[in-house]
Amino acid sequence: MGKKDPRVDAYIAKAGDFAKPILTRLRDAVHTACPDVEEAMKWSFPHFVYKGMLCSMASFKEHAAFGFWKGSLIVGNRSKNAEAMGQLGRLTILSDLPPKGVLATYIKKAVALNDAGVKVPRVPKRAAPKPLRAPADLAAALKKSQKAQAAFAAFSPSHKREYIEWITEAKSSATRARRLQTALEWMAEGKPKNWKYMRR
């Protein structure tokens, strides 16, 4: 048998007047489609658990939201998660919810996925950024200043990139030479390019 959590009752009671009927209908739909579901509060909003995370609902100032843990496998291209958290988009009135039969089908599909132990496919990791290469004039100048070279080597990739872009984006050779000289002075003092704007 499923289990209701009194904290979910309290959450719904504190929600905006527009959200209360939406959250109540969603809760009832989940319990009807999955009688063994259990409620829990995670990350400060209601979740429904059945052999792992199943779905969740939340209320905000101007809309409510509902989402499946394995949403991409349930709703697919019909997902409205660009509009709001979850796959059903911004829910402001009851008619924003899908028809009861459609919602029940989604929930039963989520249950079947959990029964089968299906995992959500992981998003492939982004390719590692290309290694930063200092332009020839900067590399040569760094060889002449041990302090600047040591500081540059210790900088994070983003700080290195800031200096490299600042120097290479100069419109004239004179500007580039001035920027290179300034960069060396700052680096010798251990300063990143945007040191003036950093909190002290």
What does this structure look like?
- The chain is of the alpha+beta class.
- The chain is elongated.
- It has helices spanning 6-14, 19-33, 71-74, 100-115, 136-143, 146-154, 157-168, 173-188; strands spanning 38-42, 45-49, 53-59, 64-68.
- Helix 7 (157-168) packs antiparallel against helix 8.
- Strands 1-2-3-4 form a four-stranded antiparallel beta sheet.
- The chain has two domains: 6-115, Alpha-Beta Complex (Aspartate Aminotransferase, domain 1); 136-195, no CATH class.
- The chain contains eight helices and four strands; from the N terminus they run ααββββαααααα.
- The termini are far apart.
- The model has no long low-confidence stretch (mean pLDDT 87).
Helix content: 40-55%
Percentage of β-strand residues: 5-15%
In CATH, the topology of the largest domain is named Aspartate Aminotransferase, domain 1
Instruction: Please work out how many helical segments DSSP would assign.
Output: 8
- Strand line-up across the major sheet: 1-2-3-4
**Can you identify the CATH class of the largest domain?**
Alpha Beta
CATH architecture of the largest domain: Alpha-Beta Complex
- Pairing-aware structural class of the strands and helices? alpha+beta
Average pLDDT confidence is: 87
Shape: elongated
